[in-house]
Amino acid sequence: xxxxxxxxxxxxxxxxxxxxxxxxxxxxxxxxxxxxxxxxxxxxxxxxxxxxxxxxxxxxxxxxxxxxxxxxxxxxxxxxxxxxxxxxxxxxxxxxxxxxxxxxxxxxxxxxxxxxxxxxxxxxxxxxxxxxxxxxxxxxxxxxxxxxxxxxxxxxxxxxxxxxxxxxxxxxxxxxxxxxxxxxxxxxxxxxxxxxxxxxxxxxxxxxxxxxxxxxxxxxxxxxxxxxxxxxxxxxxxxxxxxxxxxxxxxxxxxxxxxxxxxxxxxxxxxxxxxxxxxxxxxxxxxxxxxxxxxxxxxxxxxxxxxxxxxxxxxxxxxxxxxxxxxxxxxxxxxxxxxxxxxxxxxxxxxxxxxxxxxxxxxxxxxxxxxxxxxxxxxxxxxxxxxxxxxxxxxxxxxxxxxxxxxxxxxxxxxxxxxxxxxxxxxxxxxxxxxxxxxxxxxxxxxxxxxxxxxxxxxxxxxxxxxxxxxxxxxxxxxxxxxxxxxxxxxx
Amino acid sequence: xxxxxxxxxxxxxxxxxxxxxxxxxxxxxxxxxxxxxxxxxxxxxxxxxxxxxxxxxxxxxxxxxxxxxxxxxxxxxxxxxxxxxxxxxxxxxxx
Lengths: 492, 95
Known about the structure:
The complex is a heterodimer.
Chain A: H1 9-17, H2 23-41, E1 44-47, H3 49-65, E2 75-79, H4 106-113, E3 117-122, H5 162-169, E4 175-180, H6 186-192, E5 195-198, E6 218-223, H7 226-236, H8 254-257, E7 266-270, H9 280-295, E8 299-303, H10 311-326, H11 344-355, H12 358-371, H13 376-397, E9 403-407, H14 423-427, H15 434-439, E10 443-450, E11 456-463, H16 468-482
Parallel strand pairs in A: 2-3, 2-4, 7-8, 7-9
Antiparallel strand pairs in A: 1-3, 4-6, 5-6, 5-10, 9-11, 10-11
Helix pairs in contact in A: 2-3, 5-6, 9-16, 10-12, 10-13
Chain B: H1 5-14, H2 21-38, H3 73-77, E1 83-84, E2 87-88
Antiparallel strand pairs in B: 1-2
Helix pairs in contact in B: 1-2
């Protein structure tokens, strides 16, 4: 029999329902796997083995008496950006000190409502600002995948949700929560051979998620399969009176959409996503993806999104501007770390100087600059207008197609330290994902091939606002047609 | 619109982040690299284009103006660096 930790979420759910194993047995298996692997991978920054067993025992009772929820007994990892009552949440920043939330985020509370079991908190880039997990106060996560060149280099799992992606890829949870502001769910999913979906802006509540850029931040799952991600997303979404931007619309049956197929759908291929220097393996995967969808009955259409190249520069005004405002709350007064000083201003300035890491400070400074008197119109207002143009590109594309197919990231996982000295090189990781955040659209990354070094590569599907079902349908076909089943070889 | 050390000092002050003088030049360099790249946006014709301020077209819902929560003083101060009797203890604000 396969080890319990190797099961998909859907298979584990069936096993629990048929009493093949108990929730406590499942949680115990994950607790041991994490204990053995985490010193090497650094995916978890807090583990909660006792809480997991407690929650699993309660799940077993509910499975027995017939009151089981749809995630009953399913062990999950939670990105450290989510507030979890009584369990430390720091956004992997020193400035939050040993912050223990006294309340639960809406997304996690919905997962517990449906019976899920918490294994611990997952590593990430500080305040979700990064694409390699290297800005975490707890040090980087190591990607479970290695290049086949024998050099044994440690690779990044991507970021910011690197802990979530690595934990899923290494079988250290059945699924994980993550968040995506410019690609932080989809790029790590692509780097680790996992599935990650960012739903439409407003699908999931942001209440209790540490804010980075509020008009872009959105929660979603990272999971082993498209179906698993659909099951998790179902529980995470829904209107929440505590987040006025969460949409008052019903949540469809996402899991049912996965097997719907693509017959009759029009799939757009945007020419602007063919960038210089894109590795051959990614070019090939993209053509393969087009062929797979065609074989399954979709019609392929060429589309143009002419403002694509302006998306990243636009993002690097909008996101830092919002971040500089959101992060103003960390002043050392009400929570987190305080550094004493002679004057109040010194307390603020020293607490923030010592509490924030370099990348976070850099973005706060950019955000403050572009919002400051004399520069607001030239930078911030212009960026918001360009954002309108980017959203319009998509609106025009939807007149010709039902979903878009692109690569997820411009490269496979790179080595830790390889890009950390060059912010712009790091930012370019999000070149294919950031457009969906700016336009508020759903996007999924599906692993579909390995490159010549044996590293996973992902394809991205972007859909219309609130049309996650089509996104799942296309992703389901890509998953099935690619036949992708590779897993990282266990070395940890 | 190149940023110099003085601008960095002013912006850091606005952001309430202490940056030592020795860091100002290198920070100015980093910010100029990023801002230089962002200048690309000047190529876009945005004449008459409305700024996008919300990711989805929706109207903000209203709720009843009623007290729905409260009495959580101890929870609110639980993570304070310093607190006393349910209050935050902060440095002297008025000189």
